[in-house]
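Structure request: GDSL-type esterase/lipase family protein, Pseudonocardia eucalypti.
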Amino acid sequence: MLLVLGDSLAFHGPERAEPADEPRLWHNVAAEALGGRAELLAGYGWTARHAWRGLTRDPRIWPVMPKVDALVFGVGGMDTLPSPLPTALREMIPSLRPDGLRRAVRVGYQAAQPALSRAFSVLPGGGPVALPPHLTVRYLESCRRAVTFIRPDIPVVALLPSVHRAPAYGGVHAGRPAAERATRAWAASAGVGLLDLPALIGDHIMAGEGNPDGMHFGWWGHKRVGEALAELLAPELT
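Returned structure:
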């Protein structure tokens, strides 16, 4: 069984979010090619920190742990997205009351986010991101240690941050290079395999062949990622 810690790239197709068992999603494509199944723990906008919280706080995942044959990190990409409003404050928007205030703040922030992302991109490092790279790799390593404590010697694979052309972020992705460097360094030190998403599906995304939001994959992209993941894991699982 593949245990996949993911963000919405793991369950969102070319038109909408899909059930986790949709066979065309990349983690299910990989599991099918390997003759097994995938267990997905994921959410919209999840960063590596959300994955750590889910892994440690969601009791539905605990019975799965003794059966895990490989761990796949499909998180880290959302960490690289511009976050003009500090993440802690942005994540409080759904908790605002009354409802009218919450809706007004959400609509206002979504309207301002593209321009703010472009404005902040001129700052050193490209401006604030959802989660800084040093925290991304810290949470990835915490997840890796937690799972391999229960399932030692299983293969672990991480997906490098994807690319995007999303109008919602003003086309800005200045935080991705630093995140990729940090992920590569962590993976090398921890013995984690890497799947290069930009190399696999970068052209697919940038050509507008995925979801119209400019971030999520089309079915060709899911197939491509799933097949590449299976090819990477196959020698470790035979």
